[in-house]
Amino acid sequence: MDRQLRAPPKFLSSEWHVANKMQYASTESQKSSSERLVAESQRQVDEIEKTTQKTQSSVNKKIEQRLEEIKFWKQELDNKLEQLVNETEVLLTFEVRLEKALESCKEPLAVSQKCLLNRQRRAGTDLVYDEVEQELVKEVDVLQGVIALLERTLQQTNEQIRLNRCAKYNLEMDLKDKFTALMIDSYCASLTNNTPDVGYPDKTVKTGGNFVSPEDWKYFSNINVEKADKQRNNSVALRVLIDSILSQTANDMCKQREMVNIAFRNRVKEVSDAKHKLETLLAVVMEETASQEMNIVALKKAIADKEGPVKVAQTRLEARNHRPGVELCYDTVQNRLMSEVQEITNNIQRLKDTLALAETELKGLRRRQLSLEEEIQNKADTLYIDEVLCMPMRESVCINNF
Length: 402
What we know:
Number of helices: 7
Mean pLDDT: 89
Shape: rod-shaped
């Protein structure tokens, strides 16, 4: 109770003055510190404002530069895409030309093979490996070679079209990404501090992930441009090659076609001349055959005509053999009769021998006639095959330079 009623300790006057002075000094120090902080804060605000404005200006400039860079590469890609698309369209027309040229080779090849097949029907010695056959075989080889070359070139063209489209796809994908990037950076360039829709999106700052370096970014588009240029140049070179192939193959086929036609004309003339000569010989043989037939008739008549004289002579000899006694004399009459019989018999034998020779000769002439007639028929068949079956069929074939 005593403690509760005891008065608090009192400070001395000097202590009171010291305490006041300390309050003054502390307050002044606090005031100075606050004033310095205010000044530093204002300086810092001004500095950060300038830095922020400078940084934002720098970012805006970088965005503008980036936009220009994107626009440049987008224009490059657009140009390459347009060039590649145009080149591919032209190459497609060359593909059609190759297909038409390949299709047009089928009829000439079929005609050449049909001609070879028809000429296998020639008979006898006319079934010969002549100039026409040689040129036809060469023509088949030329046509088959042309078809093989055109097929390989068509495959190469199809592959080049595929590569062109692959390069076109890469350009289109790159352009699509460039367009998206251009839209995004254009949007970023349009943003200001007063734009209504600016805010604090979550996770805006990325330092890893799928970012690429500016060098890789340029390299990627440059590779697409270089690939497009390479495929376009390859396509142009291929078109030059196709032009050359189409022209050369058409010339080769036309040249060989003309060689075959010349060989056909020469062969037809040669066979016609041979047939004419054989027909002339046949006429001679037929005339000789008729003459020989008349000769045989004359010989037979001559032999028949000798029967009377020989009979008379033999009858006389028989009658004189019956003379009596010494009258059976070998006189001149008897001698002459004997020689007459012998002479007539010899002459008849000579005529028979000549008749046998004439009949043998007649058989030979008839065989020759049959042989000539057969050979003439073979020549006629050959002319029919070459002149009627093959040559008109070849005239319908048309070789174009596509």
